[in-house]
């Protein structure tokens, strides 16, 4: 199943729907059993004591350690024993291989389960997947070519994902979904060559994405609100201290919805009261950081978000963008940027001073409609897992690392924001992106993007200019109105955008035949909606 992330009037889709995540009742242990806080001291060795990981898990007691030796394990592990730890002896040599026939590498239904120091690859859905649990930890994990999500927690809280790597997932390398409060931390991870580095639908309350690297994905970090999951809208997500660079990778796998967010570093889509703080965001063909509304079954505005103290450069469109319609209540302060859309964001939407009641841009959203259509028309190359680069050896967990069930992990993992700084620019990371060729903010990046984006963006303004011109010409030749009436109508037409001129044409006693006025006003609106609808149909949104 896919999730449609649709930003603004033009229906920007930016990320796809999680799996239902409902466990097989036959596979779930006693739900009344609590996860122990301490290791029992018992080790279940694979393959010395048990031939498979599943056999060791089934034979374990709460609080045991399942220690997995080197090898390729062709199985889907289902964990229903609370408080156990699954740990590989060598992250680069312990492989759980789905062979593109099994849905998940490891699927956890029990509280307090830690998964550590191993690689999961080639699942048709997810690499490591916690669902409906309280307490989880993923440490020193490698996810490669798991086709939907890499490392994934759904309807779960009190979590930590750390020192991990994810690539080759068409949806997201790292994902936290449908929880409030989630109370989860993702730190010291690398996500590359995915549709999205991070996605989080309706995931709220104490989420921290910190001190990590998000690079070479179609889009970087994309928390979002959708009606396809419970608990909308998302709120209280902190994105801090991250290096986000070179997202806009056309050679990474992606679904249509991920492709729509192409070239953006960080997107806050339909969320509230979140913080984007002290990140370095570099080399994005579209926007470095963007705040957008999100249209699903309902229209979710982004409000109360703060973007501050970030360093953003090398953006093809804008370093920071506030998209509309109707985004409100957001503020921008102390960012190092060269260009924003709309111009003057930190002046007119400041965090401590003047703030206009409404200020946003539309072009970035409409341009995305073209990308959706482009993908659905088959103009985008299909990327398969074998086409994605594979990582070299990755850091192992320290051999003396303590064995700890994943109980009360958030309290210890919650970061100190005051201690987080903007990451340094690596010596081997030049700032190379320059502002792309664009018209009124619509990038000339693809044929479909230009066609749908430019027309969807410009057509309302063309119609508006025509309506205003006709109205003023009509007023200038009318002798049935007094001077005061003429001035009043001119004020309405010129000072109340769109609504004023439409009201004049529909409700004034103009000598222009009413059928003509209805034709060019309502007909123009119908033509525009038909155009946008065509793009949405082609894009598979409706």
Characterize the structure shown.
This protein is an alpha/beta fold and about 550 residues long. It folds into two domains: about 375 residues, Pectate Lyase C-like, CATH 2.160.20; about 90 residues. It has nine helices and 35 strands. β27 and β28 form a beta hairpin. α6 packs antiparallel against α9. The N terminus is likely disordered.
Brief summary:
It contains nine helices and 35 strands.
Average pLDDT: 86
Question: What is the end-to-end distance?
Answer: 15 Å
Number of domains: 2
Q: What proportion of the residues form beta strands (DSSP E)?
A: 25-35%
Tally of separate helices: 9
CATH fold-level name of the largest domain? Pectate Lyase C-like
Give the number of DSSP strands.
Answer: 35
Unreliable parts: 1-29
Please outline the helices and strands:
Layout: E1 43-46, H1 53-59, E2 65-68, E3 71-73, E4 77-79, E5 85-88, E6 94-97, E7 104-108, E8 113-121, E9 126-131, E10 134-144, E11 149-154, E12 157-162, E13 165-167, E14 172-177, E15 184-187, E16 190-192, E17 196-201, E18 207-210, E19 213-215, E20 219-224, E21 237-240, E22 243-245, H2 256-260, E23 266-269, E24 275-277, E25 280-284, E26 287-292, E27 294-295, E28 299-300, E29 306-308, E30 311-315, E31 318-322, E32 331-333, E33 340-341, H3 345-348, H4 363-376, H5 409-413, E34 438-439, E35 442-443, H6 447-477, H7 483-495, H8 499-507, H9 514-538
Parallel strand pairs: 1-2, 2-5, 3-6, 4-7, 5-8, 6-8, 7-9, 8-10, 9-11, 10-12, 10-13, 11-14, 12-15, 13-16, 14-17, 15-18, 16-19, 17-20, 18-21, 19-22, 20-23, 21-24, 22-25, 23-26, 24-29, 25-30, 26-31, 29-32, 31-33
Antiparallel strand pairs: 27-28, 34-35
Helix pairs in contact: 4-6, 4-9, 6-7, 6-8, 6-9, 7-8
